[in-house]
Design a protein that fits this description.
The protein is mostly helical. Helix content is 60%, strand content 0%. The chain contains 14 helices and no strands. α12 packs across α14. The two termini are 16 Å apart.
Length: 274
Amino acid sequence: MNLAIYGDSLDGYMAEINRYPVLSVEDEFKVAESYWKYKKIEDAHKLVTSNLRFVVKIAFEFRSYGCRLADLIQEGNIGLMKAVKKFNPYKGFKLITYASWWIRSYIQDFILRNKNLVKHNAKALKKNLFYKKDPAFVGADTLATADAHYARGEEAGESRPLAVEDFSPELSLNAEVSNEKTTHLDLLKDDFADPADAMAKKQEQRFAKKTVTTAIAKLTPKERLVVEKRLLTEEPSSLQSLGNTLGVTRERVRQIESNAMKKLKEVLSPQPAF
């Protein structure tokens, strides 16, 4: 299947990806197990094509950042392929549970790399990537605290994920496709509606939070403080005020922030997919 999307119309693409059925839990496990053992490209192809419609749904969440939906979908597809390559079927959850984090990660990374086009919203997206201020994320015992929450099945603090109602998308899911009565929403069959989704969502959030806490745990105490005060608060501290707190110059605070961001980028930036 050719995953390229030409032009701004998604009619043909959405019709094509809906030709591929969503695998049942049992069938998905069999295919994923086969790929895990034998790395057959046809198994990877089946896993990717059966989840392409979910990439479109996730991409719609990021429409307000000024990027073409087609570009967001393409990036999300790369994230899906990366997830398929790394997916371990013996972990006990569905592929889309694991893949949705990779899909969002690639889309978010694409938006940030093109932040000159969407400068107004880039800062908000960065803050969403690191979540809101939470002692479990910025304390000295960050990783241990987060792992304890994870082991008990608890959520470490609160985060506010991006929501559809935050956006004013240029293309409505309720808009009719061409001159027909079918809408884009109709073309996106709702295959998320099953009893496993609530647990899947929690597992996805835990996976993302654990990745973030792992990244922040690599920072020095000063770097964590600067990241907290500059990126994780609604009212970021100035370089001067942080300099006064740490007993260093404004320029030194800038250097600390720059070093911290480089470390976080190394951990959080997606690697190339197969």
